[in-house]
Amino acid sequence: MTEPDKVLLTLKVNDAVHEVAVEARRTLADTLRHDLELTGTHVACEHGVCGACTVLVDGDPARSCLMFAAQAEGSEIRTVESLAGDDGSLSDLQTAFSANHGLQCGFCTPGFLMLAEGFLAERPDADREEIREVVSSNLCRCTGYQTIVDSIQDCAERRRNAKEASA
Amino acid sequence: MTFGTATGDGERGAGFRVDGTWVGAPVTRKEDPRLLTGGARFVDDIHLPRMLHAAFVRSTVASGHVTSVDLSRVLEVPGVVAAFTAEDLDLGDITPRLDRPPEEYTETSMPILARDRVRFVGEPVAVVLAEDPYAAEDGIEAADVTYDVTPPVLSEEQALAPEANAVHEQAPGNVLLDVSMFASDGIDDVFAEAPCVVQVHTRTGRQNALPLETRGVVAGWDSRAEQLLVQTCTQVPHQVRTVLAGSLGMAESTVRVLVPDMGGGFGIKCVVGREEIAVAAASIRVRRPVKWIEDRKDALSASFLAREQRYDARAAFDETGRILGLDVDVLCDMGAYSCYPFTVGIEPLMASSEMPGVYRVPAYRVRGRAIATNKAPTAPYRGVSRPQHVMVMERLVERAARELGLDPLEVRRRNLITVFPYTGVNNVTYDPGSYLESLNLCERVIADEGWYETRRAAADQGRVLGIGYSCFNERTGYGSDAFAKRKMQAVPGFDISEIRMDTAGAVVVTTGTMSHGQSHETTMAQIVADKLGLPLDKVKIQQGDTDRVAYGWGSFASRSITIGGTAVALAAGNLGGKLLDLGAHLLETPRDNVELGDEGVRQRDDPARGLSYRDIADVAYLKSHLLPKETEPGLQASASFDGVGDGTFSNASHGVVVELHRDTGRVEILRYVCVEDCGVAINPQVVDGQARGGIAQGIAGALFEKVTYDENGEPSAASFLDYKVPTACEIPDVGMHHIETPCLFTDNGAKGAGEGGTIGAPAAVLNAVNDALRPTGVELNDTPITPQQVFDALTGALEVAP
Q: Which of B360, B449, B462, B653 could form a disulfide bond with B442, CB atoms 3.0-4.6 angstroms apart?
């Protein structure tokens, strides 16, 4: 057997441009975690069911364990590390998760945050049932999901209220 | 109860209670910021210089003799650095021990890597190390292992058959544990003379605890510390250290186990696994750090499993529905190996000891057995046996109600323990609880929400609704005396805490428990902050480091807040005593004239006169010449705590409304109500979270999850496509209600809260389904309940039990 060939990729992640040389078979999740050291994205099933590895690809939630890093070239990737402010202050979505106890062990949490981030951008008016349907995309073993739905609904309502107040 | 704001975080619940205590307030968690920002450090986030990655060559057969292991081609794979067999590493086995006679317990050992025999598909045979995990995976595919395959033992029937193959030579009948803990005199007469005897035969599916983070380890020799540093996600770091050091033949002082952030455990991580030991040994051989992260397939099929049990139970009742006797045979399929430190006794002994539960049972007989089969071994899983035996007990009560024509809730009420302390036929003394009160409240909530009318109206429309309840208690805060009754050779129980105050007046507190999602960094800080009059941000909890924590038993059996929480409270109290001594000396006032409060010591007769902790620490550390002659410098204290008597019992009642869908057999949960009593809730939001998460796992066991095998012992649910983990669409919102019966021996009245949700859910769901099926005459007893069974029941295709 010969050494696997590596490909040189240019990835745009959280507004920063990175050049990485990885094997063609390397997943986006592994590249983010182990080559770019953005370990906030987690891997829990590696077959696209649990959603712990969810990141935004051009604004849409995607399973980074089901994508090769090479497929992400030319796209804008966002990970959980992009959510907080530069000073470390939590975003409204992150704050809502903490206030509603929407996380326990926290392992699935980055996936739910990125799922919600992408979803609320597209559907800011989503009601609880729609949110529940979207939350069912990912697995959580700790919370029973209720407080994850609460968190996302709370964030959506606050955003709507803020928008109305400023209108 | 209302809440004030302590930290200026605004409206979002960061405050303390207006009565001035942190305990009881739903403060936001100290753990959250790092977990929400990607700043946490889980084991797979650790990267060390020159680190290699491990993958395991695993048995492809369920039962057989290993005839050859050829790793030569593995070493030719690009990126592979080394590969080791059992013979190469020469490690000691893991041998869990029970102090029981040979007729009750057969001791077996689990090798780190399989030697001459393999006992389940997925059993590790060799470990491959490579420069990256992809190459390690390539490497294991090049391994050539041959087996002399023997017929696998995959069921109770196969295990107990006279000609059965022995999974372990020393247990020819495949029974590893056979214990009759209780047999009341005259119980046969009780049953012979009873006006009503009901039976329940139940099988429960094998399950996976399924933390989202799989198991994993990074191990390597630390030359500077002259120690093997083992960073692993375990609920029991000290037990890992003991077994790992023993297996490698090292002194425990040369091993340090450090636990990073942990992505759940639920029991599967409270036993010592073989992979972390193999990886540690391999890292020493190659003199490089090695990481192993279990993949999901192995986590589902080759890790530790639980819950596959069979009950033959009968109960005798009088005409009024009072229980006269309980007679139970429980058999637990423990798979291929006994787990350390709990042994194969974990499930049968729990069921035997706790089965009578919340009811007054005058006569009791039980036989508990553990059998070995060619399946992945078992570990404790949230609730341990109680989700199953509570379901059986609740089914017996429901059956009796039907036989006697009584309301099943009324039958429960006539049997619930209401006078405490109560010493049961199982030789267990129950501390005060709210068994009757919680059931009454649960029924009232379901009634007030109109579900009985809804059920009636739905029936008129041809819909099929049912309402079910469960009533249970949960022993938490087991002390060493209570665990010693199990006769484990390693007896858990106590916890030790050490506390230090620094020069700035902030404290660091150790706990021997091990949070893996339960919020101990917050809840234990709440306890300590109240003891010392500190803000939460001046209390830091340290856990999961065998060099920092003298000894600990980790987190399991809902012991952390009861035992660990009391230990930190006592340690903080001891430090408070020192602060008072020193404060009184420096204030030149009598000791009984000072008290703690608001980050300092103040005079009782003149509260304006006082010293801040910073002032006192300044003397203790930087001006020690001012200390009284006999006083040592520094501000530190320690304490230990052990559970008292038989521990403390949390309790709850669950009420469930289900709809059965005629066209698909789907069981839809329309409403879930939980009335729980865990004594004083340190953080009500955390308690609710534990209950809701536990209920989700109980529903998973009742309706969805089952580990299955084909006839060769090949796991057939080794991905999330086949092992059906419920999502937000299957798990309902849970209405939470609380009753508070404080524990009398924990420092703050708290009882454990970790497992109750899981314990009560299967019984309540099953009872609700059977209530819905009432018109058909069908009663289901096994879990998970499948849509096919429900469909068949609704279409008359299922035989009605006589």
A: B653
